[in-house]
Structures are given as structure tokens and as C-alpha cells.
Design goal:
Layout lengths: L12 H18 L5 H27 L6 H20 L7 H26 L4 H20 L12 E2 L5 H23 L2 H11 L1 H6 L4 H25 L3 E2 L6 H14 L4 H21 L8 H17 L4 H6 L2 H9 L27 H5 L7 H4 L10
Antiparallel strand pairs: 1-2
């Protein structure tokens, strides 16, 4: 029987990588190596990771297609930004308490919206659910667009306080770690197995007594909660929040991160969100002026090439032999001739440990005496021609 308490490195590799990145970038920041552009890039990366992993919970693990993730982010950005603007004029200012309160309020507001839209919408499936969530995102954007100047700024947008650049990306990395701890623990628990069983066969899940509606609402609300947190981080990384940012195209962009990273892969969503965000920022900085029109073309070409590489049957052998898993296995695997024989442990299941009626030592040490009868050939077995 396997020991369930055994430590598995693969379950903690993303914590280790993100924790190491947080420490390294913090040291580089306080030593003056990171500039404003690098700090802003790290802020965008943390926001993209939170969005991709939270949407992957719905699309990859629950198996439902949602195109309204930008709508939940929009709610978090506006509600959290408004709370931050109100608190900044009080004694709290724009410090860490202001940020934490805004994150909690913005996340809860998005989660409530997730439950409100999830109750009727999750009775639908496939394209119908995608259309409803898409409509929800457009409705949210339209509501904030037509709000009054005193409430949420209307078409001009909501003016929000900008958080300290030296600390915001660090807080973003910490929130990524918190999100991973919550989502991965749910996925690896009995609740996670219930969620994936709904994805595989909803009928079979209902037949085994799983409350499908409750789990769907749980996943939808949790995903919306983290999307709202990403929206609050977005409001703190900008001086103004405008609803035109959270349109249909942005929801598709988040979905692309999930699909490219692999459906149901948390680590894949993290990698794809990082690479796509980095690609967008670099293209925006390189292709400027008249070349700015080429940004979307290059971006689309890169995405097409990535999709072809991940799905082309002709490249299957190349993908299996040239990947990170194979590289690290070859890197840490020792050759047989490099292994010291003195370090090889004996097999614990020795032959003399096996209980038998006859002592094995006596059998193996038995002397065989040669006599004339054993040497004399057997005439009866000889045949006559």
C-alpha cells in the first residue's frame, strides 16, 4: 500500500518557481536593477496568471465554456477601485490596508455576481452557456459605461489611486501563491474529484449522488472571486479604469491562455499567461508608430504557430522527445556506469527471509556424492536400432 503522506515534488513545483521568482525580483527591485517598464510587466503578468488559472478552473476542470470572465474582472476593478478611492481620502490613505480591503470587497462583489449569473446560466450547456456568459460580460460593461460621473465615471472612467510600483508586483505574486494554494487543494480533494467527474459525465455524477448544481456554483463563484481580485490589481496598476478594456476580445484572450496552456493544467496556464503577456508587451514596445498596425498580425501568427506545434500529428514524436520533462529527466538521471556499486543497496526481500518448510541454507549447502550407481549408464533407456 502506497504511503499517501509521501512528499511529491511535482505538486509543489509551481510554488517553488513562483516563490523563487518573487524573491529574485524583490531583490533586483530594491537593488535598483528593475526599471518602471519591468515593474509594470511583472504587474501585468501576475494579473494574467490569476485570470488564466481562475478561468481554467471553469473551462478545464469543470468542463464549461465561459466567455464572461472579463465581466467579473470589470466588476472587481470598478467596485474595488471605488472602495480604494473612498478609503484614500480617509486616514488609511493608499497603503496596504486600503489594498487588502479593496481586494476583499472587489473579490466578494465579483463572486456574488458569479452566483447570480450562475444560478440560471449553469442549467445551460455548451454554446448556450457561452452565449449567456458573453451577454453578461457585455451587460456589465454597458452598465458601467452608462453610469453617472459621480458614481463610476461614466464613459470617462473611474479615477483610482495608483499603488506603489515597488510593492504592487510583489503583492501580486503573493496573491498568485494564495490562489494556487486554494485552487490546487480543492482540485486534489474529494471536491476536486467530484468536479472532474461532472466534466467527464454529468449524468454519471448525478447517479452517484453528487450535487452537480452546488459544485457548479462553487466553481463559478470561486473563479469569479479571483477574477475580481485581478480586476482590483488592475485598478491599482492604473490611474483610471475604463470599461472599454473589459470587452469580448479580452475574454477571448484569457481563454486563449487557458487553451494554449492545456485544458486542466494549472502549470500550463501559468506558463501561457506569462509568455502571452510578455509577447504583447514586447510587441507594443518594438512596433511603434506606423508599425503599430503589425502588432496584432505578429501576435496572431505566433499564436497560430503555437497551436500548430501543440496539435499537429506530424510533430507528435518531436514534442514527446523534446520537452522540459524529458530534458530534466535526462539531466538528473545517472548512467549505469556512473553508479558506485558500493552504494547500491541489497534487496530487502532476500531468499533466506522467505518462510519455507525446509531451511534454504540446508538445501543450498547439501553435498552431492557421486557413486557407481550414478555413474553407471542406464541400459533400459538405451534403444536398439
Amino acid at each position: 500500500m502506497k504511503d499517501k503522506s509521501k512528499f511529491k515534488l511535482k505538486h509543489f513545483i509551481n510554488y517553488i518557481v513562483i516563490g523563487a521568482a518573487t524573491i529574485i525580483f524583490t531583490i533586483l527591485n530594491f537593488t535598483g536593477v528593475l526599471g518602471l517598464s519591468e515593474q509594470f510587466l511583472l504587474e501585468k503578468i501576475t494579473i494574467a496568471i490569476i485570470l488564466a488559472v481562475s478561468l481554467g478552473l471553469v473551462v478545464g476542470f469543470l468542463g464549461e465554456l465561459s466567455l464572461g470572465h472579463a465581466g467579473f474582472m470589470c466588476i472587481g476593478a470598478y467596485i474595488g477601485g471605488k472602495i480604494s478611492a473612498l478609503l484614500s481620502s480617509s486616514s488609511l490613505g493608499t497603503g496596504l490596508p486600503n489594498l487588502l480591503i479593496s481586494i476583499i470587497v472587489g473579490g466578494i462583489a465579483a463572486a456574488i455576481a458569479g452566483v447570480a449569473i450562475g444560478l440560471p446560466a449553469l442549467r445551460l450547456k455548451g454554446d448556450y452557456l457561452a452565449i449567456v456568459t458573453l451577454a453578461f460580460g457585455e451587460i456589465v460593461k454597458t452598465l458601467f459605461l452608462n453610469s453617472s460621473d459621480e458614481s463610476f465615471g461614466g464613459p470617462i472612467g473611474l479615477e483610482t489611486p495608483r499603488y506603489d510600483r515597488n510593492h504592487l508586483f510583489i503583492i501580486g505574486f503573493v496573491l498568485v501563491l494564495v490562489m494556487l494554494a486554494i485552487i490546487q487543494n480543492i482540485i486534489r480533494s474529494k471536491h476536486g474529484r467530484a468536479i472532474t467527474s461532472i466534466r467527464d459525465s454529468e449524468i454519471a455524477a448525478r447517479a452517484t449522488g453528487i450535487n452537480v448544481t452546488r459544485y457548479k456554483l462553487l466553481v463559478f463563484a470561486l473563479s469569479a472571486f479571483f477574477a475580481g481580485i485581478a480586476g482590483v490589481l488592475y485598478s491599482f496598476s492604473n490611474y483610471r479604469v475604463q470599461c472599454t478594456k473589459f470587452d469580448y476580445n479580452y475574454s477571448i484572450e484569457i481563454l486563449v491562455m487557458v487553451v494554449l496552456g492545456g485544458m486542466g493544467s494549472v502549470n500550463g496556464s501559468i506558463l501561457s499567461a506569462t509568455l502571452i503577456t510578455f509577447l504583447q508587451v514586447q510587441l507594443a514596445s518594438i512596433l511603434t508608430g506606423d508599425l503599430a498596425v503589425l502588432q496584432n498580425i505578429f501576435y496572431a501568427l505566433v499564436l497560430i504557430l503555437i497551436v500548430i506545434y501543440n496539435n499537429a500529428p506530424a510533430l507528435k514524436g518531436f514534442r514527446e522527445t523534446h520537452n522540459l520533462k524529458t530534458f530534466f529527466s535526462k539531466l538528473f538521471k545517472k548512467k549505469k556506469e556512473d553508479v558506485d556499486p558500493s552504494l547500491v543497496k541489497d534487496d530487502e526481500a532476500k531468499w533466506n527471509r522467505i518462510p519455507t518448510k525446509i531451511n534454504m541454507d540446508e538445501l543450498l549447502s547439501m553435498d552431492v556424492k557421486v557413486t557407481e550407481s550414478t555413474m553407471k549408464p542406464d541400459k533400459d533407456k538405451g534403444g536398439s536400432s
